[in-house]
């Protein structure tokens, strides 16, 4: 890719000013003609309509530029994180004695030593009458609103009800239901009373739910009977009944008696937990070593990783939201996320700790009704994933009238530059796109865009403040100005995991790493990026995963998980799952190599395998192509070399 400079951006601005009424295809043609193969830098800091939080924090820190501020956040981590905690007015029952206590072992680093606090208390510092959550369900035109004061009361009432019904601190309760006001209130209530809410996407099969119940020894599962999604009724309760947890807590508008769920006297309706008299239930105070929530992330094996979020992880969410997505008090923030994905708790903490409102749409984000909802609720910060934007473009939606969106953000999977040009077109090119990449094990992002630097389509322009990384090429040399490489994080940072509940954390992230004298401590992550430096700013473009995991529909899954279910088909001897991006970038596509017992019809076999994956794993995992192959590449120790299979496909995408 050729470099770009301000000349292209100035030419594009002039073209847009003169031709803003042109249809999308003509604008795209003009854009391509101006930029050619150069990096599409489409946004300059002076275009941002308000003073950003980041601009204010740069001034407060005594720095004069973003690069200087970022360097300060790394060189003076204690000072940076103290300033951020102070800016959020985090409430402590007992203050910390030190921000960071370092250790040679990254899993023994201690943040906020001696602090005792419950992060939920800090979520209710906005005015009690301010809207905390807007919610609209698919198939309904009614928008429900709950204020900060009412949400706080509901959280305390649920916490009291949980306690009165036999739940205690450190009990683990799975939330297996869609995003809603009550799901958010219940999640916060668990943390408030010391329990550990566990998030599992309700799109996962009963088998996958059963697996997760066993891994974390769940005391109960909160679920719903059914809900509307993409004009279809999605039945959730039957999968929970098949998984057969110890207790079921049912959120239902149809059932009025818990005894109708199944023959288990311990089951409850969610409405039974709402203790209307529990208005003064005390919070449980955590140390930063305490788990407040558990999320699952797939590694490179067939068993998902159970990753605990600690008491300080929400601070990472909120600081990212403040500095990267530029969330201000009074903003309305939404994300096209389900309750089982890490962006759900991220959104809860990033919005509430910054005194903003959350907008939740309970349905398919691909529908025009979702965009209408964001207009009606005056959404100012809209987070999404590339697959959703691609669906909007496929439906040829036109620019959205009366949109208040000031900033877009994107995560979950690599984006396509043309699709994201279309996203900016939907808002008349009035809002930048903050690409944001991280993970459940990070509590947020490690690389992003900031509005204080120029922004290029489908690219990142900075590591997240307070964290850093290097890129290593195939020869294990550091990529300096330009080139492709694999990401290795440099600990410590608030939010970085220090424990996996069901496997070795050290083995997962720190074993068998390159030895570099200049970087004695590295952490494996698995993302690949291509770096370009223009006029002092580094731009990074995602190259997808470098390990044997993949992002499908915004959900991380391991190749082994897919291969395990594919191999249950009677015609399959062996399989190998890989994911690749198209040459133009964008979301990863799943390709399955198969060695079969006999010649078989490709189309029919793909349909049958898709059905198995849908039933056993997740209907969001779509097979893009099926490739027949008898001999799979292997190492001398017989390990499958999926990297070689990806190379075979590279020229066909």
Automatic annotation (TrEMBL):
Enzyme Commission code(s) on record: 6.2.1.1
Positions of the AMP-dependent synthetase/ligase domain: 132-489
Keyword field contains Ion transport: no
Residue intervals of the Acetyl-coenzyme A synthetase N-terminal domain: 66-123
Keywords: Ligase, Membrane, Transmembrane, Transmembrane helix
Domain AMP-binding enzyme C-terminal positions: 561-639
Superkingdom: Bacteria
TM segment ranges: 173-195
Cited InterPro entries: ACAS_N, AMP-bd_C, AMP-bd_C_sf, AMP-dep_synth/lig_dom, ANL_N_sf
GO molecular function: acetate-CoA ligase activity
Family: Belongs to the ATP-dependent AMP-binding enzyme family.
The protein's name in its UniProt record: Acetyl-CoA synthetase
Species, as recorded: Cytophaga hutchinsonii (strain ATCC 33406 / DSM 1761 / CIP 103989 / NBRC 15051 / NCIMB 9469 / D465)
């Amino acid at each position: 890719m050729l470099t770009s400079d301000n000349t292209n951006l100035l030419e594009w601005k002039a073209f847009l000013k003169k031709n803003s009424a042109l249809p999308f295809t003509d604008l795209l043609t003009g854009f391509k003609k101006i930029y050619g193969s150069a990096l599409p830098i489409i946004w300059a800091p002076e275009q941002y309509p308000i003073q950003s939080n980041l601009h204010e924090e740069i001034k407060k820190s005594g720095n004069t530029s973003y690069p200087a501020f970022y360097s300060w956040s790394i060189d003076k981590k204690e000072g940076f994180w103290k300033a951020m905690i102070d800016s959020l007015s985090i409430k402590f029952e007992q203050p910390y004695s030190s921000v960071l206590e370092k250790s040679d072992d990254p899993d023994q680093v201690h943040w906020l030593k001696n602090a005792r606090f419950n992060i939920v208390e800090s979520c209710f510092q906005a005015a009690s009458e301010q809207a905390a959550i807007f919610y609209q369900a698919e198939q309904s035109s009614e928008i429900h609103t709950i204020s900060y004061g009412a949400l706080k009361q509901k959280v305390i009432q649920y916490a009291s009800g949980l306690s009165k019904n036999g739940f205690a601190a450190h009990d683990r309760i799975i939330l297996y239901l869609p995003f809603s006001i009550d799901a958010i209130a219940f999640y916060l209530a668990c943390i408030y009373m010391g329990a550990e809410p566990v998030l599992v996407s309700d799109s996962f099969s009963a088998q996958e739910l059963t697996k997760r119940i066993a891994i974390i020894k769940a005391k109960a599962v909160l679920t719903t009977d059914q809900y509307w999604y993409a004009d279809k009724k999605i039945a959730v309760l039957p999968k929970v009944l098949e998984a057969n947890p110890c207790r079921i807590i049912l959120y239902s508008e149809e059932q009025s008696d818990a005894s109708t769920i199944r023959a288990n006297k311990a089951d409850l309706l969610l409405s039974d937990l709402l203790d209307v008299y529990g208005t003064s239930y005390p919070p449980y105070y955590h140390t930063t070593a305490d788990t407040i929530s558990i999320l699952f992330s797939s590694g490179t094996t067939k068993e998902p990783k159970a990753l605990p979020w600690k008491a300080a992880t929400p601070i990472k969410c909120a600081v990212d939201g403040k500095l990267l997505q530029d969330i201000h008090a009074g903003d309305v923030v939404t994300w096209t996320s389900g309750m089982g994905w890490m962006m759900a708790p991220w959104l809860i903490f990033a919005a509430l700790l910054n005194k903003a409102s959350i907008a939740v749409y309970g349905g398919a984000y691909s529908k025009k009704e979702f965009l209408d909802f964001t207009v009606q609720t005056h959404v100012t910060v809209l987070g999404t994933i590339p697959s959703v934007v691609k669906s909007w473009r496929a439906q040829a939606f036109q620019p959205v009238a009366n949109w208040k969106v000031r900033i877009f953000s994107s995560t979950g999977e690599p984006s396509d530059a043309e699709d994201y040009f279309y996203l900016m077109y939907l808002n008349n090119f009035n809002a930048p796109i903050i690409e944001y990449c991280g993970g459940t094990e990070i509590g947020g992002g490690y690389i992003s865009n900031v509005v204080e630097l120029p922004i290029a389509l489908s690219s990142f322009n900075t590591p997240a403040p307070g964290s850093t990384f290097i890129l290593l090429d195939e020869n294990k040399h550091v990529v300096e100005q330009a080139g492709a490489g694999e990401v290795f994080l440099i600990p410590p940072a608030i939010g970085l995991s220090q424990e996996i509940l069901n496997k070795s954390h050290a083995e997962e992230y720190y074993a068998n790493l390159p030895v570099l004298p200049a970087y004695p401590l590295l952490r494996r992550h698995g993302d690949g990026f291509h770096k370009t430096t223009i006029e002092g700013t580094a731009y990074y473009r995602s190259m997808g995963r470098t390990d044997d995991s993949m992002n499908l529909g915004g959900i991380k899954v391991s190749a082994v998980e897919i291969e395990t279910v594919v191999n249950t088909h009677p015609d399959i001897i062996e399989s190998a799952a890989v994911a690749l991006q198209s040459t133009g970038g964008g979301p990863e596509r799943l390709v399955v190599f198969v060695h079969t017992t006999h010649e078989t019809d490709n189309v029919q076999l793909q349909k049958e395998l898709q059905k198995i994956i849908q039933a056993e794993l997740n209907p969001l995992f779509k097979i893009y192509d099926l490739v027949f192959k008898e001999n799979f590449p292997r190492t001398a120790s017989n390990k499958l070399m999926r990297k070689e299979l990806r190379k075979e496909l590279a020229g066909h995408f």
